[in-house]
Design a protein that fits this description.
The protein is α+β, with helices and mostly antiparallel strands and about 525 residues long. Helices cover about 25% and strands about 15% of the residues. Helix 6 (about 175-185) runs antiparallel to helix 7 (about 190-215) and helix 8 packs antiparallel against helix 9 (about 245-260).
């Protein structure tokens, strides 16, 4: 007969299978920020013609533009092998061509709305969304009876349905998880395992306590995380050249958070320029960002506060792996600065090179025939193809400073196209260290390297991505991490066949390759 305490040890978690949790996944189809965006005129996008009822659309970019067409192929699989790396990358895009028109921001209405805060509207929309799509209900804690010897370290004696997690608790509820670890240890149920878990949660609590003790005042955990990240950025920018003059914005943000003039609102952002707050919390629209960035000459000292998470993002970049023994996937992507689209909608500053070329200061190319429309607005597009590593561990795209120099354009005046800055980010890499990067906004698309079109066939529309800038010159064969943009647009899967290929598709049926599938080899355009 087991000791009486063993009966207390019968408290065990219930199996994690719950039907309500599955139903709760529907909530991901709608977000509050997307509903808020309907209040902005800039959010209107043209509808794409559907190729068929069975094909799922990639979705339009947040700001469509007049850029010609991107190639959508029907019932064709484009497959290619990266020549300098092991592994194959296959792309299927059974879709059709779609034209994209420019979005024009009504500046008068936009500027009149900058002082309006969307905090209350967002809260109402989230409450409405939770009523329509209730979050999954956590299962009640189940109990079971164990009458064997203690401590219990034999996993074969655990009951059916046992899970190593505690499904009745939130994984991020540190205090509750610590309390549960103490219970498990006292009950002598897998004490070795729960002693290790206790150390993990205690380390997380120590970090939170340190953040709280370092700041006077009553702050939310999100604000404490943000202040901690901003202090790291402040220190790093003060110790090196402040290339994009962001230190003044960092200091202003710290003052605003510490004085409770600014709060962290998930789904809303504020814009800052040279230490000045330009608006109240509002949904992020890239068309609005571009308009405000141009007005404040945002090639430097322009900041978007509120994107992503309050703490550091993550990069799987602690080590560099060379050679073909690792299944690393690299793919070509078209990249351009947001003001290098060749659009004739956005007004340039006469006589000043600032993103767009005016008729007054037209720089000539080698042929001296830079096309300028009758309106005097520039229409010279500029983009380049860069190789990126498909990295599911990267929370943000990374490029090099030399890439930014290339994106500025091949014109006599090297400032024809200027980057639009979004601020700085702190990044935690694989070894746990934290680093600060300047960030700019770019547009990116997936290219078809097997295409016979030298101008570059696009397999996805141009879409926005924030890019963190690594200092210095990109070394040939080096690593640019793609961040989340591609996996937010396409289905991806790796398959244990033919060298573990990576397959990308705009519909999940495109991932169903047979075991005998042999990828086609493209013919080089030029040899």
């Amino acid at each position: 007969m087991a000791p009486k305490k063993a009966k207390a040890a019968s408290k065990g978690p219930k199996a994690t299978k719950t039907s309500k949790a599955a139903k709760g996944s529907k909530a991901t189809k709608t977000t509050k920020a997307s509903k808020v965006s309907k209040t902005s005129k800039a959010s209107k996008t043209p509808k794409a013609t559907q190729a068929s009822t069975a094909t799922q659309s990639l979705g339009e970019p947040e700001e469509p533009e007049r850029l010609g067409r991107y190639q959508r192929k029907r019932a064709i699989t484009v497959e290619f092998t990266i020549p300098h790396k092991k592994g194959k990358l296959e792309v299927e895009s059974p879709i059709e061509e779609v034209d994209m028109q420019d979005v024009v921001v009504d500046m008068k209405a936009f500027e009149a709305d900058l002082d309006h805060s969307y905090v209350d509207e967002l809260a109402e929309l989230r409450a409405e969304h939770e009523r329509e799509f209730p979050p999954p209900i956590k299962p009640e804690r189940a109990t079971w009876t164990y009458n064997g010897p203690l401590p219990l370290n034999d996993t074969s004696k655990l009951p059916e349905g046992w899970t190593w997690d505690e499904p009745d608790l939130d994984k991020l509820d540190i205090d509750a998880q610590i309390e549960r670890c103490h219970e498990r240890i006292a009950e002598q149920i897998l004490p070795f395992y729960f002693e290790h878990r206790l150390k993990e949660y205690q380390a997380a609590k120590d970090i939170q306590d340190e953040m709280g003790s370092s700041e006077r005042g009553n702050y939310s955990l999100d604000v404490l995380k943000r202040i901690s990240s901003l202090k790291i950025i402040e220190k790093d920018l003060g110790a090196r050249k402040d290339e994009y003059k962001q230190l003044v914005n960092v200091k202003a943000l710290l003052r605003a958070y510490r004085s409770h003039q600014l709060d962290w609102n998930n789904g809303l952002v504020t814009y800052w320029s040279r230490g000045e707050q330009l608006c109240q919390p509002r949904p992020l629209h890239w068309a609005e960002f571009e308009a405000l960035n141009r007005k404040h000459e945002g090639s430097e000292s322009f900041w978007v506060e509120g994107m992503g998470s309050p703490g550091p993002t993550h990069l799987d970049a602690a080590i560099t792996i060379q050679g073909d023994d690792w299944d690393l996937y690299f793919y070509p992507a078209g990249v351009r600065l947001t003001n290098a689209r060749g659009s004739a909608v956005l007004q340039p500053t006469p006589g000043k090179v600032a993103g767009y070329i005016s008729a007054k200061n037209t720089p000539l190319n080698a042929a001296g025939d830079l096309p300028i429309p009758a309106t005097g607005l520039a229409s010279v597009p500029w983009w380049v193809s860069l190789d990126f590593e498909f990295d599911t561990g990267a929370g943000i795209m990374t490029i090099w400073q030399s890439d930014v120099d290339l994106l500025r354009g091949a014109f006599p005046l090297n400032q024809v196209f200027v980057p639009m800055t979004t601020g700085c980010t702190t990044v935690t890499v694989g070894d746990g260290s934290q680093h600060t990067f300047d960030c700019i906004l770019v547009q990116v698309c997936l290219l078809d390297p097997a295409s016979a079109d030298p101008s570059g066939t696009r397999l996805t529309p141009w879409t926005y991505s924030v890019a963190a800038i690594k200092a210095g010159q990109y070394p040939a064969g080096g690593r640019r991490l793609d961040g989340p943009w591609l996996r937010n647009m396409l289905y991806q899967a790796t398959q244990p066949i033919n060298g573990v290929p990576l397959t990308l598709s705009n519909n999940k049926n495109g991932l169903n390759l047979t075991a005998g599938h042999v990828p086609a080899q493209p013919t080089a355009l030029y040899a």
